[in-house]
Design a protein that fits this description.
The chain is mainly α and 313 residues long. The protein contains ten helices and three strands. It has a three-stranded mixed β-sheet with strand order 2-1-3.
Length: 313
């Protein structure tokens, strides 16, 4: 039976402990995270801008990339501005409602990112394995519908998890040992026995994470089997080049997320530090990889710069 914690005060706000346990490096962390955040915003906004203004990029492949950049921009907005503010101020509180909203958007956008990455793999699968039918199967309209379904699926799972965690009251101590409202940290502050709820929400997250990752692996098995049958070396190289950046981001994204969500409780380690890679580093690397390793994006960027320099003259 669920047991109520005794002699506890029902909470109305939480204190995000975050990096306050490392007081000597908070100023350095603020500067480092601010620089990474600004570069992340610049990279994602550049990708969204290029896919919007350059008609040659109005294809499903780049529409998915633009959708991913928008989703990741929103994803970082839910976490990093609050984290940066907390690094500078003594008051690190967040209301219970604010915590719930932050968690809902963080989980929803994280799930959306996973689904969009899966759809990008499916797009590459159709382009390489069914090149003749690809223009019929993957139109811009279908791409838009798939992106909408990714947002719907991500936030459906998020709402279920957030509702399970916030269905009851929370009791003191009100210290969230994290720099944002991480679900496994917050659920342990519930007034009722939280072990079952924690197990359920963790299982949902891990199932979503592993499910989307396995779908991507399956698509790449088919892609590789098709690529190896291409007779010319140039054809193989072209096929691999269209997948290289996506596969790199997938490995980084799912690798860092798996470290946090699939880490055994008995393994120890600072959850705050372990969460930095997938909340700060991954969103920073994603636009960098997609832009630097993509000829079309680089050509589009040069084209835009060329137009601006011509107009200035």
């Amino acid at each position: 039976m669920q047991t109520m914690k005794v002699n506890q005060t029902v909470l109305k706000e939480f204190i995000l402990v975050g990096f306050s346990v490392y007081p000597r490096v908070q100023a350095f962390l603020f500067v480092a995270f601010l620089c990474l955040y600004l570069l992340t915003l610049t990279g994602n906004l550049a990708i969204m801008g290029l896919t919007w203004v350059d008609r040659s990029l109005h294809t499903p492949m780049y529409l998915f990339l633009g959708a991913l950049s928008f989703s990741e921009t929103c994803y970082t907005l839910t976490i990093i501005p609050k984290m940066l503010a907390d690094l500078l101020t003594e008051n690190k509180s967040i209301s219970v409602m604010g915590c719930g909203l932050q968690m809902c958007f963080f989980l929803g956008l994280g799930g959306t990112n996973c689904i969009i990455l899966t759809l990008m793999g499916y797009d590459r699968f159709l382009a390489i394995c069914n090149p003749l039918r690809y223009p019929l199967l993957m139109t811009n309209g279908v791409c838009g519908q798939l992106v909408a379904s990714a947002w719907g699926g991500g936030f459906l799972i998020s709402l279920i998890e957030t509702a399970l965690i916030f269905r009851g009251s929370f009791c003191s101590p009100n210290l969230v040992k994290h720099f944002f409202c991480h679900m496994r940290t917050v659920v342990r502050l519930a007034c009722i026995d939280s072990d079952l709820t924690e197990s359920i929400v963790t299982m949902i997250s891990v199932s979503g994470l592993m499910g989307t990752f396995l779908l991507i692996i399956i698509t790449y098995v088919f892609i590789l089997s098709t690529v190896f049958r291409i007779p010319s070396a140039k054809g193989k190289q072209k096929a691999f080049s269209t997948c290289a950046s996506h596969l790199t981001v997938v490995i980084i994204h799912f690798g860092f997320a798996a470290i946090v969500y699939m880490k055994p409780e008995t393994s120890g380690g600072d959850d705050t530090l372990m969460s930095v890679p997938y909340t700060v580093i991954t969103p920073f690397l994603s636009p960098l990889i997609f832009s630097l390793r993509n000829k079309d994006m680089k050509n589009s960027f040069r084209k835009v710069l060329g137009k601006r320099s011509f107009l200035n003259k």
